[in-house]
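Sequence, structure tokens reproduced for absentees:
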Amino acid sequence: MLVAAASTPSTADPTWKLKATDSSYSYVCKGEDSIAITGDRNSLTVTGECGALEVSGSGNQVTIESVGAIRISGNNNDVRYERALNGKPRPTSKVKGAANSVRRGG
């Protein structure tokens, strides 16, 4: 099952939400977009610049071009970023769970 929704940005809600299992998807960030992915065993490719990425679930693989902050909860999630926003060496990250990884390299 794949559910994707775009919403008006606010402080509490992500710009784009993906709730899925065993799916592949692509998204283009436009500046300060915030993305939330929930589910298991998904593959997501994100181009453009994103303010924040949140991953919840297990076995998700995310490749993101540019991001300011990453939050992961769950197990065995892999997030790879090409660069951090604003010339910073790495995005801020908060990781909860086992065997999750945040690393540079797309």
Q: What stands out?
A: The two ends are 26 Å apart (CA to CA). The CA atoms of residues 27 and 76 lie 22 Å apart. The mean pLDDT is 89.
